[in-house]
Design a protein that fits this description.
Elements: H1 22-30, H2 33-44, E1 49-50, H3 51-57, H4 63-75, E2 79-84, E3 90-95, H5 97-133
Antiparallel strand pairs: 1-3, 2-3
Helix pairs in contact: 2-5
Length: 139
């Protein structure tokens, strides 16, 4: 079976979710909440941010998850990691140009979330209330 993906034969954005589309792998980066939050912190910072500062600003993230997220972002070319030869070594993170452009998109997603979170929560509560009232099928 041919596992290559041809943009010409799949010109729709929805086709980005097809198994062999290269954009699918990139879209998976955006599906990670910690990625979006790390990008937000780095985007809002005027200067590079140290690991522990990032961790303090990202309430609820573990050291292991932050390390994994930063390594993935660095690997994808979205975050720059600068190590300074001090004792102990000082490590700072900042966005690359590519990361800054993604940061604009993640900021827009954050703004949309801020504008619509009440609607989403209301819809969830309505759904949960209906589900609690509806009888379960026999079977």
């Amino acid at each position: 079976m041919d596992t290559t993906w041809d943009r010409e034969s799949s010109p729709n954005l929805v086709d980005s979710y097809l198994q062999h589309c290269p954009a699918r792998d990139v879209l998976s980066v955006l599906a990670d909440k910690w990625v979006l939050l790390v990008l937000g912190v780095l985007r809002n910072s005027k200067t590079p941010v140290r690991f522990n500062d990032l961790r303090r600003r990202l309430d609820g993230i573990t050291q292991k998850m932050l390390t994994k997220t930063l390594r993935g972002l660095e690997r994808d070319g979205l975050v720059r990691r600068d190590v300074y030869p001090t004792v102990p070594p000082r490590v700072e993170y900042s966005l690359t140009e590519l990361g800054a452009s993604l940061g604009e998109l993640s900021h827009a997603m954050g703004m949309w979330s801020e504008r619509h979170h009440i609607e989403i929560r209301t819809a969830r509560a309505d759904f949960d209330a209906r589900a609690a009232r509806e009888p379960e099928p026999l079977g």
